[in-house]
Amino acid sequence: MSRPDKPSKVNLFRPKEGHMRDEVHIILALLFGWGVCTFGFQFLVYACRGTGAGSLLTRLTLFNLPLHFWFTGQFLPLWFIVLCVIFNIYVDRISEYHSRRRDRSYE
Amino acid sequence: MNDSSWSIFVVLLVLLSFILVGLRQKSRESQEYGFGGRYTGRIGGGAAIASNWMSAASLMGLAGIIYLRGYQGLAYVIGWTGGYVLLLVLLASQIRRFGKFTTPEFVGERYGSPAARLMAAVIAIAISVIYCVAQFKGIGLIFAFMFGIGYEQGVIYGALAVVSYLVISGALGVPRNQQLQYLVICVAFIVPLMWLARKLGYFWLLPQFGYGRALTDLAREFRIDFTLPFAGDSLFEWCALCFTLMVGTGGLPHVLSRFYTVPNVRDARWSVVWGLFFIALIYWSAPAFAVFGRLLEARHGIAFTPEAARAAADVIALKTALMAGLPGWLVGVLAAGALSAAFFTVAGLLMTGAASISHDLYYSFINPKASETARMQVAKGGTLVLAALVLLVALNPPGLIAEITAVAFALAGNTIFPLFLLGIWWDRANRYGAIAGMVTGVLCTVATPLLGGILPGVASYFPVTASALCGAPLVICVMIAVSLATPAPPEEMRRFLEQEVHGHLD
């Protein structure tokens, strides 16, 4: 494990092989899902204002709530929970995989 | 009994029962407590995260800001839940493996600089003070409501009550039972809401969905479109506010230090999921109070004028309960829930703030030879000084509860979040970068109040409550540039990051 000849490097965008690389992949994927649904949706609502698609977003209702209001106020918190669950399951799995490779009991 | 004496009675009952339950628990399992409570599994850990998070901002401020600003207020709901995603994926397990419990300790260790540590301590205390001002406003409003007195008097009595509660529970050594706290706060918020929905004739089993009809009625009967997106505010303002609250969540000192109460990293991660669920339960409900409030006001023929609405916003949940004619004891339950959330938040923040004054400022800088007793005395005095400072600001509150809280989040997002993010994920970040970053972050946060008059552009890019959308990336860039221009941090720290924080399974 100790590699004294090689200088240490930690960089989110250049993760080292092994557990860290797998972890960074899931982190970036989740941040993408987080950003697109949070901010991307607001851009969509904003861009569609006054058009047919825009009135679809604000007129269609779910649980009597306009679609955009439901999406932001109720679906997004749920989506965040889902993202966290996905992250935890995935990280549990890669931790198990890498610790088995290392032949060490699971933390 | 009338409404207000009922609420005083219920509030006293709730606060007293916390002390009694705590004392009973303490005698039963006196040696099992660690830092901030005993271990109760993933769900218990989640409830502790949620109770640590619940404050006057969640229980009073959130409904108020949605009542006042409709769709724009949802930025608070999203910001205060989505921040946990950032916290979980980017920081939670790594700072746990790093092994430093408080923000100043982390900064001091990672960047190896007493100056950076001192700055981080001062910033963390400033965040606590701003956060407490919002809580004091909430406490003052509830006291004013319960005793039928003016707001100033309410804040003063509230401050006295908080400090005496701290002294009493400190003298008795009452441990915090955060699971019970969450349960009480959650029930005290949702049961009155269910009653309200039932009384108004909406689907009451899940008022979180039931309020949809009220929204439709509001639009049909009174032509009030509550949900119109980006009506008075721009897309930029919405996104800036939401982003600020998210990165602020990832940088709030008292939230970050929650990850150490759980014995292993895996349970720490899963308890975040439960915590987020428990928080979302409250946040799904808050808009319902706002919508019912608007509907009842419209039905009673109360005109919605900006000034009156602003004055009523922070107590809209209580006002709605009164307007709907809920039984007095239930109004008391609602007040007691919000008050205990504010109480425990203030108690926690004042105590950590004072501990930081005693340890990070007094012991580390002013008098390194100070005895244990002297440090304790500084901590006790620090609590009083902080409480007095908060009271002074809260007497003339600068905004709504949610807005004041958002400023604390902006400061955290502009300073502490980048410090942790780069500290964990980029080993080249060094002490010069950290100090430059903190200075830039503080400047970004205070840019509008200080320079807004001179440079009009500043206010549009760094709004007071939402300065981190432009601020946090700017701070990160400054930290990277300054770090690259100055010598690299010691190889020891870089190796520690590579092998312990990111290489525990290599």
TrEMBL record, chain A:
Residues in Sodium symporter small subunit domain copies: 17-98
Membrane-traversing stretches: 24-47, 67-91
One Pfam family recorded for the sequence: DUF4212
Record key words, sorted: Membrane, Transmembrane, Transmembrane helix
Record's protein name: DUF4212 domain-containing protein
Organism of provenance: Geomonas anaerohicana
Automatic annotation (TrEMBL), chain B:
The UniProt record lists the keyword tRNA-binding: no
One Pfam family, short name: SSF
Domain of life, source organism: Bacteria
Compartments, as annotated in UniProt: Membrane
Transmembrane residue ranges: 6-23, 43-68, 74-95, 116-149, 155-173, 180-197, 235-256, 268-286, 329-357, 378-395, 401-425, 432-455, 461-485
Keywords assigned by UniProt, alphabetized: Cell membrane, Membrane, Transmembrane, Transmembrane helix, Transport
Membrane topology designation: Multi-pass membrane protein
Family: Belongs to the sodium:solute symporter (SSF) (TC 2.A.21) family.
Protein name: VC_2705 family sodium/solute symporter
Organism annotation: Geomonas anaerohicana
